[in-house]
């Protein structure tokens, strides 16, 4: 492992330990619900699944009912703890770009990882190589226009960051995948008027006043306008012609 990867590993061990091992917030819960919906749509319980960038394994425990799960992450210290909690999952720590994680997967899942890799095209190409013909990629990544409407600290040492918008993501995926779905979810803001519109307390008040339908409509409108925090993409690996 080179020095650059060592620095990244230190950051992600610390970040996952202080964040994902303690709490899974609204953004992640919404991502999980989309992934589960897509998996349920396949109608199978014998899938061979790999999660690339599993962090503290918060999603893995929801994947096991669909088949055999392999998960990998740079955060080796966090994975060691998670493996004890989820012995039914095969965890492989290390730099995904240099790891041998097998192949012939039916499904590859990756949430909020693409923005944090040095070579996004190579990252997606390796995932494509892991999938069997007709295999699916279920991807969630930060939506650049929405995140730029938030106050977010600059990257810490060891934290790579390059957000994409939907057009950039479609171009990246288009080299190896056919995209069947792409949409944004979870409007989430910490400044401006939208901060108050999307606040949990405003949602609870709307529900209490019988106006939950209106709040949900406003939320869905933001998502359709590509103001969701996450871009979710469902794609099928393109077989050689």
Automatic annotation (TrEMBL):
Record-linked InterPro entries: Methyltransf_11, SAM-dependent_MTases_sf
BP GO annotations: methylation
SUPFAM superfamilies referenced in this protein's UniProt entry, alphabetically: S-adenosyl-L-methionine-dependent methyltransferases
Residue intervals of the Methyltransferase type domain: 51-138
Keyword Transmembrane helix found: no
One of the record's GO molecular function terms: methyltransferase activity
Database matches in CDD domains: AdoMet_MTases
Entry keyword set: Methyltransferase, Transferase
Protein name, entry field: Class I SAM-dependent methyltransferase
Species per Swiss-Prot/TrEMBL record: Bradyrhizobium denitrificans
């Amino acid at each position: 492992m080179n020095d650059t990867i060592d620095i990244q590993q230190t950051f992600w061990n610390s970040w996952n330990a202080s964040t994902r091992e303690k709490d899974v917030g609204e953004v992640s819960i919404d991502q999980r619900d989309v992934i589960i919906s897509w998996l349920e749509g396949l109608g199978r319980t014998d899938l061979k699944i790999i999660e690339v960038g599993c962090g503290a394994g918060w999603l893995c425990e929801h994947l096991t009912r669909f088949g055999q799960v392999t998960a990998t992450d740079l955060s080796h210290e966090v994975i060691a703890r998670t493996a004890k909690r989820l012995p039914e999952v095969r965890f492989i720590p290390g730099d995904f770009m240099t790891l041998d994680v097998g192949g012939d997967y039916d499904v590859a899942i990756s949430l909020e990882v693409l923005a944090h890799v040095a070579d996004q095209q190579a990252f997606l190409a390796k995932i494509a190589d892991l999938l069997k013909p007709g295999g699916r990629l279920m991807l969630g990544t930060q939506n650049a226009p929405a995140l730029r409407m938030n106050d977010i600290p600059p990257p810490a040492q060891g934290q790579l960051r390059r957000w994409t918008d939907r057009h950039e993501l479609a171009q990246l995926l288009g080299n190896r995948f056919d995209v069947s779905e792409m949409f944004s979810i979870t409007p989430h803001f910490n400044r401006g008027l939208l901060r108050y519109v999307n606040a949990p307390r405003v949602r609870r008040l709307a529900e209490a006043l019988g106006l939950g339908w209106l709040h949900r409509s406003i939320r869905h409108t933001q998502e359709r306008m590509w103001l969701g925090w996450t871009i979710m993409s469902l794609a099928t690996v393109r077989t050689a012609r």
